[in-house]
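Checked the freezer inventory, then went back to the computational side. Two predictions to log before the end of the day. The first one is the construct we discussed on Monday; recording sequence and tokens without edits.
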Amino acid sequence: MPRPATAAVRLLTGEREPVRLATTANIDVDTGGLLTIDGVVTEVGDRVLVKDQADGSENGIRTVSEGQWYRASDARSARTMQKGTTVTVQEGAAAAGKTFVFNTLDPVIGDDSLSIIEWLPSSAQLLNSNLTAIALLSTTAYGRALLELANGTALASLVDSFFLTPTEGDAAYQPKDTDLTAIAALTTTAYGRNLLTSVSAAALSATWVNLQTGTGAVSRTIQNKLAERISIKDFGAVGDGSTDDTSAIQAALDAVKAAGGGTLYIPGTSTGYKITSGLTYNVTALTGRFNSRLRIVGDGAGVSFLTLSGVAATALTITGNATYVEMYCHFEGFRLVGNNTVGSKGLVLSVSAFGGSDGLIIEGFDYNLDCTDVEQIRFANSNFRWGIHGARFNAAVSGTSANSIVFDNCAFANNTTWGLWITNANAVTFVGGSTQYNGTTGGGSTMWGMKITEAGNGYGTVVFDGHVFEGNGGDADLISEQSTYVAAYSFKGVGFTRPSSANYATNFLKLDGSTASTYVLSGCTLRGYGTYVANAARPYFALNNTSAKVLDDGTNIYGSVTEWPAWAGSTQLVSSTIPQVDDGAALGSTTKKWSDLFLASGGVLTFGASDMALTHVAGSQLRLAGNFGRQPPATKTGNFSVGVAENWLIVNQAATTTVTLPAAATWNGREIMIRTIQAQLVISASSNVIPMVGGSAGTAILAATAGKWVTLVSDGTNWQIMAGN
């Protein structure tokens, strides 16, 4: 029996969706239920042609339910049951395979009696029920002329073109295509008339038009509409997972190039497209801007994918034009799949600017992505995984280094050696995304999560915003090699994590090279969790570049005292971290994660409302703007020890006064000034005072005369008398 026509054809021709059964007698549609119709027990949801009712207004197409049978959704109006509307029956002892036609003009549904009759020509029985649609031509002047043999030659030609053999009564005298029902009914359109008179394919496509809805829309031929993008299936790609589709896909790529660039479509399939050698798109010989553009789109990486297995080749190689670099390559919604054959590559992109990806997955190659001379590229929502190496951006050859590259929510994951390696990065930005589980724990210097080599051959900025480094093995989660160029790295809201005792790198951040590059961390977390056990042999930072500086702005979280940076005394680790607990430790204490305060040459430290500033002047000088004050003088009336904050001291005791001075080694360079009011000796509790004229350390500080004063300065061993009377 004929297959149901498409919704569009039904709309044009009046053909309804097939029904399962047709009644042979009156039934109770109000009571309904699972009745037996034409020898078949109905089921809920079945469509039934009700045509034999005593009350003809109840006739129509109804849907079976356990209660009342209501009219089907596509058969409730005069328009959908107009005279000439047909419906085919699928099952039943008497009606299976038959077609019925509604024969009431402009009926009022529910009021007018609907006449429904089996459709047959008035003069003779059709040779095959599949010819029902041809018989429907009698509803048009064109069809009636054919059926009345107004032109016997044309009719014979028509019949011969539709049937496998032209001999009437022969068993093979069958329609060539069961879709003839819908095709024949299109005689009311230019498309249908051209088809039935066997016009050429070119003329046919020229009459089949598309018209968008909306004001100002114009008619276009379907051929013109479909040519907007090229499908690999246009060139014979099968997509069954076993047929070799290499030649078909290459032909489609060539067609895009020949058209001056455009879109290549990869339709989704459940098994993907098999290729056995590399595909190429090379536009080095093209001239003119934008002629090299290429956009490859699929229906999503889950269903649109190309598989290259067991071949040391590149699945897709795209080579741009060094003169016209505006290639605008874009890859969206598809996947390239390999099986980790050594020497294989997923996508090789060279000499290309202004492009990117969205929803691209490349997995299972020796090198999933390999780029040279690319710039102004944005990769989004893409994944480079399960390979031997993830993604690589090489040093410039003929164009430019990896310049202005953005990775937006991209993952470099589960590659056995490393996830990402960029050489000569300029203005590279990572927004979200992750670098995780690349390499193996203890894998050594050939493995890592991400490596950036010689950033700064130009702009020299590398930005990580919300990126995650997790579970990578080998040397480090991130290796920065800066031996030639100075670069500025920024980490904002970045997570460095060691998730288990089986997944960790030796360092989170490894700084190699010799240039004064900077690394600023803000709002980051660096820690282990799960079964991971901290070890001092795995410090968070490896500062092999002694000129580099790491700045902590005070908002970062370090999970392990054992592994966190040794801020105290370091000239490379600069921290403004505020301690969370006041335990009395000093600035630079190892318990505080602090670094000594660093003020670069020319730097200014401003206090309060800018009423006082401390400037680092070149030549080891500090210049103070504003007033400088110490603690006020403290008066002592007995023996005493000099307090931590005491500098000016007045002795007012009517007896020899013994002073316990601070340990000189602890207070190297500290000044203490002492003056007497009464004529009494002032001596040190220890022999640690050097006279103004020099000599051995003794205890004498001031003679027994009122008004004597002295300035003591620690030299790290004793207290020197530097001034006095």
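The second is the one RB wanted added to the comparison set:
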Amino acid sequence: MPTIALVGNPNSGKTTLFNALTGSSQFVGNWPGVTVEKKEGRLPGCRDIILLDLPGVYSLSPFSPEERITREVLLYQRPDAILNLVDGSNLERNLYLTAQLLELELPVLVAVNFLDVLRTRGDALDLTALSQAFGCAVMGISALRGERVAALAAALPALARARPATPWSRFAPPAEAALDSIAMLLPQQRPLKRFAAVKLFEGDPFIQKELFDARAGGAPDPSSIASAVSAAETALGDSGDSIVAGGRYDQIGRLCARCLRKGRRKLPGTRLDALLLNRWLALPLFALLMFLVYYISVSTLGAWLAEMIGEGLFGKGIHAFGQDLPGVPALLEEALARWRVSPWMRSLVLEGLLGGLGTLLGFVPQMVLLFLCLAFLEGCGYLSRIAFVLDRLFRRFGLSGRSFLPMLLATGCGVPGIMAARTIENERERRLSIITCTFLPCSAKLPLVALIAGALFGGAWWIAPSAYLCGMAAILLSAALLGRLKIFPRGGAPFVLELPPYRLPSPGNLWRSVRERTASFLKKAGTVILLSALLVWFLSNVKWEAGGFRAAEGLSEGMLARLGQWAAPLFAPLGFGTWQAAVASFTGWIAKENVVSTLGIFYGFSGAEGVTRKHLAAAFTPLSGYAFLLFNLLCSPCVAAISAIRREMGSRRWTLLALVWQTGFAYLATMTLYQVGRLILHLTGT
């Protein structure tokens, strides 16, 4: 079955094109490095062709894990053909990868993306001249607008049967002589001799290890290769890798001068960058935007929608069309009474399922609005610029702007945030980012933020932004403290980021982003959280007595209450030493959504208004409630995120360090907040 690899630079529109060609719904972001794993799809009109969306790379010299994925697929799994997507708005840099792909002896089709941007700038690109120069087909498209995507899809079946491309790059005569000598030294059966010769000339450590392995038969003499490279370096007065890079860019520059005529129009984002990247205004503007995001999604419009659903659907009901419409609890209670359901089953449905899931689902509107706002900011290209703005601040704490992508994705879910740390080449920054990125409130923690804000602070606007700021402060402080440990290697790499152009996100991409994140939450609510709610209800309503389970007289007599009473003293210095709060915090390690659903079961509520006026206000003070929120924001993440940490760290020792640090830091930070808060309240007499 033919396989075509979709290869291109980061943020060249690969995932958008992959979705358009396969009908898939992968996440699309206006940010370099969104794809960190290879994805597979099939063409709707030709189901026997497999299309692989590989992580974006700038070259075939691998420095990060996702670059190694792309290189290993192309060199060792050997697809049948390559679809090379090129960003036409940055042609010269993108063609460097194209020059390397042409050396892989595979059929290549070059698709030049962003034709609409070229037209906006008044640029004119001669695609025919490009095709003649490369000796392969070249097509112009706009993946975002769908322009000529159908024609590209129609050309792919023939691509797998096309003749292999031939190497295009040519270097100075001394370098070419050295490459010929190196190729002659390679084993006769060695494939891709030109590619291997160029990589050896550059000093590529992976190719060197592969060829000079003592166990490999017919390995070339390293000294002969070193002699050929040294002769070329002496003749040209430069290192081997600089000779190759300089030669390629010189040739690409001459080709672009011949094929591309640039217009004089500037894209509208130039003036916007002067404001948003201003040295003094950038951070205040970012803080203002994040405040507006949380103000709209959590405190105002989101809170209003959540109250409508919480009170109307899962609460007392609503008054509409001149009559009172009962909510789900009243309807269910009436139906269960009519069907003469046993008391324990009635309790299971009303208190276990509805009390747990109903409370949680009432906050879905706030989550949807938050997802929509973040998807818009990311899709338009603004959030990638914040990485550039934050780089100077982050470096003071041992991180860099690269760490912002894991943090950004972690606001949706910790798992993709942890996985996104693969894009960080520096091992020290990568490990620090994995350990700390889950401090930011993810979508699973948002219901708890909204619950505490509504129940104990009257829906105060500052609660949600303060949760975000606490998470960011925890990241920076943790990075500064952990970075002092000897197990974290010293030094860092310079941060280079290609700023994507400003683009108005398409409604389809916004819908896809919001739908995927919301569907993930609802799927978890219907599986893990549902089962957790049932287990919590069962353990809360039974006790172990006389060698068997017996019905408990009340929640305080249940098995879970006994366990919570044993653990509650651990949380007393934090301000919430009740068994209910202790158990809710422990269930959060399975899934953070469980904290709210567990409280819903213990306090017997559904609907935000009931929570606010009757239950949590009696169980928590504002100070202890905020302490409870802070601990559950900062402590170790859910089981799925812990599994991702183990996978990305590749070590149980590192995983254990991450969990101990996250939980210990959360405990100390919460205890400090509560105890200092108590002291201030005591001194002020409030």
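For RB: Confidence is low (pLDDT under 50) at residues 27-33, 606-613. The first helix runs from residue 14 to 22. Let me know if you want it refolded.
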